[in-house]
């Protein structure tokens, strides 16, 4: 293996993220993979706020934040400027799922269609965490958030996650991948691949949020792993629109994942909501079929 | 070189001569001819710029933010609805102190939808931190772009600039315009060399988040830069005059104002009509003069107060209205500049949504002002209300 320079301090310590924050881990892993010749564009959100309380900054690479919805457009302008100046820095966008799936959708679509050269990282913690856990287009079915609360007439969020990777693949993005903080080597490899692919690339990183999902900070990695092991977070890679690599698993039932988090507690207490859990299991089953997630075990000998 | 050309084309020529490295714009009437011309320049090698055809105005200015922060001279153009869609970025660009220049072919705000001229669009964003230049004719609309980049990029200023000119009335009108040569333009406006930019060799953070301990000072600093912009306008306006014979050092223009009893205060293309009306009124023995405001931000408070100190009455003509207040933005500013004075100031809202302003309207407004009647919409079609 090639020797790796120790560059993890490109996203430095001292930031204000919660202990066990999946987003801060994403920032560290992504900058580590991208290296110092990178310009980072952040959308408004948790990461932007916890990493740059003026006059301090956790970023040791050039960094810019403009607004919530325009990171892809800001990156488009940087791409044009670098091209004009003959500069070779890489551009990495860091957007949360709200900035990516919802409010920034138009600027992302425009920038991908124009074919700018950047890597868009969505750190997906499946709700608006910075404003206090409101649902987004990335919130999974039945997750309770402050704007999709579970109650006597509700099981929480009414819709499954938007399929953002498919939307960006449909834009003709040369490289689209999902990744998880639970698998840092895989994540780094995907980021490196995206950065070294010319054109607009997308990596959606599953980044559990202990505060928003309701679990103890030391469980972050375990929960991220369970999302993959249950088939609720398919971890894959798409090159030119075709799935080329998938993390296969011996699937566990979705309840193994759901029961670890307060946002799904209403599915288990005061009584088990079998129909809802079945609907979530069906999502995992569809993922398994679509991406071929299941490891086929040899039949047991009698 | 003198050319008879359309306002939009003259502006596009000026922008080309300013050598922006990144142009990012979205088409909207009546701005379209400018961005079409720039696209044509790029397509034919007359402008060496990256031209980003964005998906809306919010992204148009956002791309300029990125380009400018990365150290490139960035330009956009818009109007009306487009300007409002980018409003969030307008504040953002000024707060980040990025010297972007944007042409505004002034147009009314909907609803009801109107593609025609007034100044409600840019005036509604007067508090965002951008400098506001307003042109009377196409020569000025053209020249002010050179001044805009020069002032914006001055290290003591570092603020973005709106160069405003009336949609259709100027943008689509053919007039003789003296357009600089590239050599002349380069003499006045050197390449953009910001002290700070997004650069891996010297990483800095742009657009951080400020707690209550810091925010107030950011706004103060931006306001101080607005004040310093006055000095930069005087300095570079004079320099432009010395080089090319057209001096833009004054933020206001006075026309037959010295001995006037009645002063008209206005901005933009209607000032041409006002000057003609003044000439005729003068022949009839009426001592009327004009104070034209060319720079609305920073507002030339002292200059306005001084220029109007001797008159008996003031009629302020506004092609915008601050709904729910006594009138238009210019009238409010003039009253502020004259605070403590006993000279009566009367405001008139006119020309909204492209309604024509004729010499006889100006004369009638002067008569109304003489009678002490004002602070009203002028030229209403009574049968409609």
Features:
heterodimer; A: 302 residues; alpha/beta; Rossmann fold; eight-stranded mixed β-sheet; two-stranded antiparallel sheet; 35% helix; globular; B: 385 residues; seven-stranded mixed β-sheet; six-stranded mixed β-sheet; 16 strands; 39% helix
Could you give a quick summary of the protein structure above?
The complex is a heterodimer of chains A (302) and B (385). Chain A is of the alpha/beta class. Chain A is 35% helix and 16% strand.
Describe the fold and architecture.
- The complex is a heterodimer of chains A (302) and B (385).
- Chain A is of the alpha/beta class and 302 residues long.
- Chain A is built from eleven helices and ten strands.
- In chain A, the strands form two sheets. Chain A has an eight-stranded mixed β-sheet with strand order 2-1-3-4-8-7-9-10, sandwiched between helices. Chain A has a two-stranded antiparallel sheet with strand order 5-6.
- The termini of chain A are far apart.
- By secondary structure, chain B is of the alpha/beta class.
- Chain B has two domains: 2-244, Rossmann fold (3-Layer(aba) Sandwich); 252-384, Rossmann fold (3-Layer(aba) Sandwich).
- Chain B has 13 helices and 16 strands.
- In chain B, the strands form three sheets. Chain B has a seven-stranded mixed β-sheet with strand order 3-2-4-5-7-6-13, sandwiched between helices. A six-stranded mixed β-sheet of chain B has the order 10-12-11-14-15-16, with helices on both faces. A two-stranded antiparallel sheet of chain B has the order 1-8.
- The longest helix of chain B has 30 residues, at 215-244.
- The mean pLDDT of chain B is 98.
- Chain A binds chain B through residues 36-39, 41, 48-49, 52-55, 57, 59-67, 69-70, 72-85, 89, 106-107, 109-111, 113-114, and chain B through 21-22, 24, 48-50, 52-56, 58-60, 62-72, 74, 88-89, 92, 96, 198-200, 202-211, 214.
- Strand 2 of chain A pairs parallel with strand 9 (205-206) of chain B, so a sheet runs across the interface.
